[in-house]
Amino acid sequence: MSKTHDADVAFIQALAELLRTNDLTELQVKRDYGQDDSLNVRVSRRMEQQVVTYAAPAQAAAPMAAPAAAAAAPAPVAGETDDPAQAPGAVTSPMVGTAYLQAEPGTPPFVKVGDTVEEGQTLLIVEAMKTMNQIPAPRGGTVKRILVEDGAPVEFGAPLMIIQ
């Protein structure tokens, strides 16, 4: 455990400012002051904009021929929350990576909104460090919403789909 240094407070404030000005979600730094004396700091923030990013594809799924219908906000479904990650039936990303809704470009998607899925069925793929990781359905049900676009980056715990 590090001893308190007056400069540490200013250092941590500078890290928080870097986080904000560069639109970062997390910084981690370790400073060694000498033998058995160091400072290990992790500064992170929750970005509310991510929720908006994941909600946007659901609006894009509305028919293009009816712009008035797309502009109207859908009525909340019973049990649905503002945060898709907290919605009952939310399938979240188990890792940081890139989400792919189909096996390869030009092939049909694994699932579409309205499809009935079985437990263990592949919903999508998350590529992490050049490895394609199949994301299985945690339970059977109907795909109500797909919250990511094909090729979109995802973070750990980010909502991907809602299955009810």
Structure description:
The protein is 20% helix and 32% strand. The protein is α+β, with helices and mostly antiparallel strands. The protein has two domains: 6-44, no CATH class; 49-73 and 81-163, OB fold (Dihydrolipoamide Acetyltransferase, E2P), CATH 2.40.50. The strands form three sheets. A four-stranded antiparallel beta sheet has the order 3-10-8-5. A four-stranded antiparallel beta sheet has the order 7-6-4-9, with no helix packed on it. A hairpin with a 2-residue loop joins strand 1 (26-34) and strand 2 (37-44). The N and C termini lie far apart (47 Å). The model is unreliable at 47-81 (pLDDT under 50).
Q: What would you say about this model in short?
A:
The protein is of the alpha+beta class and 164 residues long.
Features:
Single_hybrid_motif; four-stranded antiparallel β-sheet; lipid metabolism; elongated; 164 residues; alpha+beta; OB fold (Dihydrolipoamide Acetyltransferase, E2P); 10 strands; 2 domains; single chain
- Tell me the strand percentage band: 25-35%
CATH topology annotation of the largest domain: OB fold (Dihydrolipoamide Acetyltransferase, E2P)
Q: Pairing-aware structural class of the strands and helices?
A: alpha+beta
Q: What number of domains?
A: 2
Number of beta-strand segments: 10
Major sheet size, sense and barrel closure: 4 strands, antiparallel
Tally of helical segments: 3
Order of helices and strands: HEEHHEEEEEEEE
Q: Give the strand line-up of the largest sheet.
A: 3-10-8-5
- What is the CATH H-level superfamily of the largest domain? RNA polymerase II/Efflux pump adaptor protein, barrel-sandwich hybrid domain
Overall geometry comes to elongated
For the record, the CATH class of the largest domain is Mainly Beta
Q: Percentage of helical residues?
A: 10-25%
Query: Averaged pLDDT, please?
Result: 74
Low-confidence stretches: 47-81
CATH structural architecture of the largest domain? Beta Barrel
